[in-house]
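Revision sheet: structure tokens.
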Amino acid sequence: MAFQITEVPGKPILMIVPSESIDPQGDLFAAIQAVRQYYEKIKQPFYYLNDLRAMPLTFDQLTDLLSMMRGQFQGLPVTFVFVGTSNLAKLGATALKQRQYGGWDVVIFATLEEAMTYIDDQLATGKG
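Predicted:
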């Protein structure tokens, strides 16, 4: 798989970092399955932290990914935290907030440090 998947010790965070070479169909579906398996393991609300900075994504791949996520993540108590500055990363984050793509809680940051600070602040205030 062209992803590094990490469970953050002691925190309800699953971090996925894609590599520069991914198979949009197989790898993305495998990453989504990893998220579902993580939830089955912890059975509590969690953060899906995805560092999109190295992920080469086309608009068509983005729309496919959004459709897959809507179907696979339905009913999961997840907050999406993305790291990325590209227009497609921002578009994807905005789309996931919309009802037709799941109406999820989504935030996006420019750096991994900002994203982790946000999650830590949310956990410290009992929001995660």
